[in-house]
What we know:
Transferase(Phosphotransferase), domain 1, eight-stranded antiparallel β-sheet, 3 domains, alpha+beta, Jelly Rolls, Phosphorylase Kinase, domain 1
Amino acid sequence: MAERSTAAVDVADNSGDEPxxxxxxxxxxxxxxxxNGRAADGPMPDKDGERTNPAPTAAPELxxxxxxxxxxxxxxxxxxxxxxxxxxxxxxKLRRAVGVHLMPADHARARxxxxxxxxxxxxGDPRFVQVLDAVEENDLVYVVxxxxxDATELTALLAAGPLEAHExxxxxxxxxxxxxxxxxxxxxxxxxTPSAILRTSTxxxxxxxxxxxxxxxxxxxxxxxRADTEAIGALLYAALTQRWPYENDAYGLTGLPKGVGxxxxxxxxxxxxxxxxxxxxxxxxxxxxxxxxQEPAFTTPDELAKAVAxxxxxxxxxxxxxxxxxYQHTTYQQGTYGRPMPPGVTTVQNRAVAPPPPPLQSRxxxxxxxxxxALLIAALGLGSWQLADTLLDHRTQKGNSGTTNNxxxxxxxxxxxxxxxxxxxxxxxxxxxxxxxxxxKPELAPKxxxxxxxxxxxTPQYLGFSNLGNLPGRKDGSGIVVDLGSVQNVTGLDVxxxxxxxxxxxxxxxxxxxxxxxxxxxxxxxxxxxxxxMKLEATLETPVRTxxxxxxxTDLPSDGEGGYRGGINEIKILGRPS
Length: 578
């Protein structure tokens, strides 16, 4: 994607704190060119929706090459509106791209911008684009934030078409859970537009501008949770239909037909996932609009997140199979290179086909045919007799010896169909110190079994090497050990990962093991070592009796910021009662 799209403040609209249904109309009245993404000077709405004049202070006159704090070199201005400007810059100390918001220190909103940036930085949730610095110096206030060059705006994704059901499910799941966590810390966004949502190359959605975007434009709300919930509903609606759920066009999307009101997504576009469409309607329900089944509207992101978690999981589509091209023989391979085709030989798709030989009509030929037929009949009879004898012997041996699982010694009948089982109760989770090294973020391990659906165990950022920094004791990876409390019959796994692209395997300790503390203690392999997507699901062919299960990560994906990071959100171990 173009780097311009990673600016921390979207410039496709200049709306205030009115409902989302009116934002596109406000953009026109505020002098915004939504096609070119540039905002002209114009009045801004206050918290009551009334028009007020913008702050008289002009944006600082800075230019490319200017340095802040002798560290941040400004490179490209991506936004200049309402007394502030936003830039792509280079952090010369860490040699990485960053984003910077700039405004005069005497700007009417300078204090609120600093407060919003500092509170957002304290959250430290990796699902949000992180604030790196918030400074006031030399009559300037500036906020430095992450710049994600490999991420794509939701605006660009929707320009190519609606999202398929699994991708829309991932979008609403991750965004609603992230905003629920932010509101629990007293933080709101108030400008959750398609340009505020970024999708990384690993499939993770990141939210930029938490609290800061609204503070830059002076937007407030008396019901911030309801405002953010409605915004998430609008994002989901747009993802399913490629239409903006109001009459006005906005963010490069066509609005709904005028005069029909808010209609269900499956009435806008055929084939929309009904469950996701109903969630979008309940999140958007306002001013008399209701969901198709008359359920109450969602009023908080947490309510929406819980409803998404309760619906059946939507799996990714199966990859399309493409048949390999038919192999064509060349004349050289057929042995006719440089020679004319013999008479009587025809070709089918460049392949020489000679006419079949004449049938055997002589007395010798007839005798040969009958001899071959007799031999075939004898061979078939002999083979049938041997097959029946083998089956009878096998059935007799099975009846005499009983059934035994030779792989695990559990006495389970291998002929029984595999069943995923039910989630087992997990008593504890801890980080395994592989190689005797210090544990990686041990305080986060219990979050992987708390059932919250939020990020659980997340590794630090490792630079230079994907195998956890290639540090001593880290070359063999790290992982989470789950304690089932007692020996159980494990039949399957359901693991939500923090990010796609991690290389991992699942191991189990023998049932007689007690507090295993090294990689060698986990001698039974439940899944092979391979690169996983956002979810790891497996059903074992035969149950494995164990108390301790290890999710072992050996390699991390790029985080798009010059380093490597991974982790586990939620672990479920499936099984049957012992």
